Amino acid sequence: MTTGNLRPPRLRPGALNLAEFLAQPAPPHCGALAVFAGTVRNLHDERAVTGIRYHAYAPLAEKRLAEIEEEGARRYGVRLAVAHAVGELKVGEISVVVVARAGHRGEAFAACRWAIDAIKRSVPIWKEERYADGAAEFLEGNPLRPVSEP
Amino acid sequence: MTTGNLRPPRLRPGALNLAEFLAQPAPPHCGALAVFAGTVRNLHDERAVTGIRYHAYAPLAEKRLAEIEEEGARRYGVRLAVAHAVGELKVGEISVVVVARAGHRGEAFAACRWAIDAIKRSVPIWKEERYADGAAEFLEGNPLRPVSEP
Amino acid sequence: MQHNGSMKVHVECCGAAARWCGAEELSLDLADDATVETLLERLSALHPELARRRDRLAVAAGETVVPRDHKLTANERLALIPPVSGG
Amino acid sequence: MQHNGSMKVHVECCGAAARWCGAEELSLDLADDATVETLLERLSALHPELARRRDRLAVAAGETVVPRDHKLTANERLALIPPVSGG
Question: Average pLDDT in the C18-40 region?
Fold first, then answer.
C-alpha cells in the first residue's frame, strides 16, 4: 500500500470526520482552501436509501488516491489531501473528502473539482446501497480509468 | 442589521473558525458539501505581509451577505451559509467562509464559487494590509456592485 | 438644526476613505436641496485622493446604496463606500 | 503446484463481481500460457452477469492494472474490477 510515512491512510473504515482534515493551520503562502465532502443521500432514483456499504479493492485504491494527490498538486500547484470511507455508512455520513489549499481561489476550486471527479472515475470503490424495503444493490458504475486524464 | 433570528451574525470580529460552520449534520437529501475558506497570506505582490485588518460598513455588509445566501439558494437550489471576519487577523487565519450543501456536486461547487466572487464584488469590506516593515495600506479594490449579477 | 436654507449631514468615511478625507466621520452643512452629487462635489474639492476615485465610489444610507441624484435630508447619515476588497 | 502444463491462479471478485461469480474469491486451474483474456473467457462462460460487462471490467494484480494480454503466472493473485461507483 502506498500510504505516506506518517499520514493517516487515505482509505478508512467508517464515516470520515471532516474536522480532522481541516485541523492543520493554513500554510502561510496559501490564501485559499476549497473542500468537497460527499455524504450519503436518503434518495436514489426516488428510492428510499437507508445507508451505503462502500467496498474497495484496497491495494489499488490506496495507490490511486495517492496518485490523485500528486497529479492534482502537479496540475494545479496546490496541496491536495483526499480520503474515502469503506464499510457501512448511514444517511448524512461523509464518504469522501477532498481538501485543496492554494495561493488563490481559482486553483483551489479547480483542483478540488478535478480530484473528486478523478476519484469517481479512477479509484476501485463500489457503492452497495441499502434500501428501506430491505434490498441491497450495487450501483452500475463506470469502467475504471487512469488518474491522468483531463 | 439583517441577521436571522437565531443564526450567528454573518459579520464577526476576529478570525473565523471553520469547524463551527461544518458542525451541523448534512441534510439527508444533500449528497454534496462544498466549502471555501479564505486565509491571510504572507505575501502580496512580493511584499511580506504580517496581518490584515478588515474594515466593514456593517449595516450594508450584513444585508449583502444575507442576500448572497438567498440569491445563491435561488440560483443553484442549494443551502448556502457565508460569513466574513472584521478586525485584525494574522497570517493563516480565516477571513471568509462559504458553505454550500446540495444534492450533487455540480451545484455545490457552482454555488460556492459564485458566492465567494459575489462577496468580493458586492460586500462593503476592505483589507488594510500590515507589512513587515511596519507600514499599513488599504488595497485598491473594485467599485461596489449589486449582488444580483452573473 | 436647519436655517438659512442649509442643513447638516453626517458622513461615515469607510475603509481608505477615512484616510482620503482625514477623518472617520464628517459633518457638513449643505444647501437644503443638496443631493449625493452635491456632497461628492464638496468632498472632492477638498480631498484630491477622494476626487481621483469619485466615479468608483458608492454612497449608502443605512442598508441602502443611494444614487447620485438622491436628495439628502437634514441630519441624514451617509456612508462613503470606496472600491471594495473583502474576501 | 504446476503439472501437465496447467497452473492455479487466484481471483478476488470485487464489488458486484462477487455476486456475478457467486464468490468473493475463486481459484482456477488455467493452461500455463494463459493470459488475462483467457481468465475472462473462462469466467464469462460460467457467469452471464459477468459476461455482459466483460468489456467494462478491469483486472488488477496488486497495485497494477494489467492489460488483456498480460501473461499469468502460477499462483498469481488477480482482482476483477467491475465498473466503479465511489464518491
Answer: 97
CATH number reported for the structural domain that contains residue A35 in this entry: 3.90.1170.40
Q: CA angle A2-A4-A7, nearest 5°?
A: 130
Tell me the average pLDDT across C51-61: 97
What's the structural domain count of chain A? 1
* pTM of the predicted structure, to 2 decimals: 0.93
Is B141 part of any domain?
Answer: no
Domains of chain C (ranges, CATH numbers): 6-81 (3.10.20.30)
Q: Is the Cβ of A110 closer than 8 Å to some Cβ of chain B?
A: no
At least 3 CB pairs under 8 A between chains B and C:
yes
Q: Which of residues 62-91 of A touch B (CB under 8 A)?
A: 91
8 A C-beta contact, residue B79 and residue B25 = no
For chain A, percent of residues with pLDDT exceeding 70: 96
pLDDT at B78 over 60: yes
Residue A24 falls inside a structural domain: yes
Chosen from B60, B82, B93 to mutate, greatest number of chain C CBs within 10 A: B60
